[in-house]
Every structure is written in structure tokens, then in C-alpha cells.
Design goal:
By secondary structure, the chain is an all-alpha fold. The chain contains 4 helices and no strands.
């Protein structure tokens, strides 16, 4: 019986393909987080504030930033 087990073990070992090595960091680069970053996107707000400060005058820009 033990010889039978070893025979099957050798048969399956021959068919086993080597695993493909994958860089750990490359697994996490193929997706976007747009839905998460929407609430943190403040670039439009900052540009609007900067434009308003230019209209109000240079003294306002110096104090706010």
C-alpha cells in the first residue's frame, strides 16, 4: 500500500508545473482609486481661492497663503 502511495506521489510530482514568480508590488498597480480620491480632490477649490485672491488684491493673497 505504501508503494502505491509513493507511485501516485511521483506521478503527480511529474505533472506539477512550477509556480510563476510575481513581483509583490506589481499586483497592486492595475487599479484606480478615483472613487476614493473624489472627496479629497481639493485642487479645484484651491485654484478658485487663488483666483479670488488675485481679484481682491495682493494683500489678501499674502495673508491667506
Amino acid at each position: 500500500e505504501i508503494a502505491h502511495v509513493f507511485r501516485w506521489h511521483r506521478a503527480f510530482a511529474k505533472l506539477k508545473t512550477p509556480t510563476k514568480e510575481v513581483d509583490a508590488l506589481s499586483r497592486y498597480t492595475n487599479f484606480t482609486l478615483g472613487h476614493v480620491w473624489e472627496k479629497f480632490d481639493c485642487q479645484t477649490t484651491l485654484l478658485t481661492k487663488e483666483a479670488r485672491c488675485d481679484v481682491l488684491g495682493p494683500e489678501v493673497r499674502e495673508t491667506e497663503f
